[in-house]
Every structure is written in C-alpha cells, then in structure tokens.
Amino acid sequence: MRTVEDIEIRFPGSLAEALAWQADEKTRGRPLAGGTDLMVQWESGVAAIPERAVSLWGLKELKGIRETPRGIEIGAMTTHTELRSSPLVREKLPALAAAAATVGGRQIQNRGTIAGNVANASPAGDLAPTLLITDGLATAASASGRRDIPLAKLFTGYRKLDVRADELLVSFTLPALPAGAREKFHKIGTRAAQAISKVMGACRVRVQNGTIVSLAVSLGSVAPVPVRLPELEQWIAGRRVDLNLLEEVERRASAEVHPIDDIRSTATYRKWVSGRLVRALLEA
Fold first, then answer.
1. For the whole model, what pTM was predicted?
2. Cα distances (angstroms) measured from residue 57 to each of 4, 75, 78, 110
3. Fewest beta carbons within 10 Å, which of 28, 123, 136, 164?
4. What distance in Å separates the CA atoms of residue 278 and residue 284, rounded to the nearest whole number?
5. pLDDT tens digits, residue range 240-273?
6. Which domains does the chain have, with CATH numbers?
C-alpha cells in the first residue's frame, strides 16, 4: 500500500520546467502548493496518494501582488498571510483580505496559498466567494500557452475545476473595488477560529443615495460549488435600503440556495443562516 513517504516529489527550477513536466504523462505530477490540504487528505486517505507530485512552492514567478490595468493580479503561490497583510489587497479587495485572515491558524496562513485554496475546489473554501464577487479571471498555463478562465466558470463540480491535467493555475486577476462600493465577508463555523465553514459568504455592493445600484453576492458550503445568487442580484438593483428590503433579502437568499445535510450542519440550518448572513452583509 502506497504511503506519503512513497511520493516522488519533484522541484522544478522554473515555471517553464514545471509546465514541460506537466505536458508529458510520464513526468506529470500532482501540483503541490503549500500542502496544507493535500498532505492531510493523503494521510487520512480522503485523496488517493499519487506516484509523484510537483512542488510549486519555490517558483518566484508564481508569487506577488501587483496592480495592472485589468485589476489586481495575484500570483498563484501568494500565501494567506501575504493576502491579509497586503495594503493593496486590504484597500482594493477587502473581502479577500478578511477571508484570508480566517483560514486556519497563523502557521496555515504562512504556508497555504490562494491557488491551493482554489484548486482544492472545496465548496467550503473560504476564499472562493470573495473571488467570485469580483467577476475576475483565473489564468491557467500549459506548455502550449495561457488562457484566462472567468471565475464564474472555474468551478465545474464538487472538487472539480476547468483546468486540464497539463495546466497549472498561475495567477488571478481581480477587478478592484469600484469607487463608492464596499465589500464584506462573513464566516459561520462551529468555533470562532480555525473552523471549517458551515456557511460563508461575501458581497460587493454599491449604494447611492440610499438605493442599491449593484450587488454581487456569493456563498460557500451551500452547494457542490461556491455560488452567486443571480436572482437576488437582479431583483435588488434599483431598490431602496430599508427594513422591509432587508427582510425580503433574507427570505429570497434562503430560497435561492439548496444545501445538503453533512457532518458539519443540516440543510435546514444552512438555508436559514444563508438568509441571515446575506442580510448581515448588506447591513451597514
């Protein structure tokens, strides 16, 4: 029986070398970022132990946070600690910074990466809702080139992404918070810290003179993939914020999600708390 110790871990000297390995089935390995999810999954038997893994940790090409004409570009190997402490992320993508600060403890935040959190493709991944509300892009690279994937289409099923076996996630480009808009992130778990989410969510909303101009809201742990709430987003545009609106928002958000029962929570609780959470996100 294969164990973690049997994995051949390869360390590419460059992104080009890693992509060349991934292009050939004989040298291809399981992409390994910080390892905070995969090592646990391999040790516990939740995920099959691969013959080889390709460590991306040392690739400087995949690190860094910079502002570009398209938005804030974040390298795949950027850690949660770097996200939560970046002045640029805190100003331009505040929900992402807030979510990164809730992922595990400081040791996990120092090692875990944005691409690892996304590639794990768990519906309980805390960063996903904060990425979806930006309408941004993920960039995947292969030996034959790069392609941009709208984040709205990246998650294709439970623990599945629109990323081919010969591709690696290399960066994320996220439109910055527009002038006059605000973002919030909120997470509900069994404990106040270091908990896997029962439900979590993020919103990006712009209000002008008491009227909602636009809303993007996303929830996690309520479906096989992190989801937006398009019916609510369309309905709410142009409506004035008052108590009646917030009560209706709560009702509509609960009705739009269809969660399941699992070890962490029940579908009934998740539906109820989804409405409460979205209402809290919209309250000033």
1. 0.95
2. 18, 11, 10, 12
3. 164
4. 12
5. 999 999 999 999 999 999 998 887 889 999 999 9
6. 4-55 (3.30.43.10), 60-174 (3.30.465.10), 181-282 (3.30.390.50)
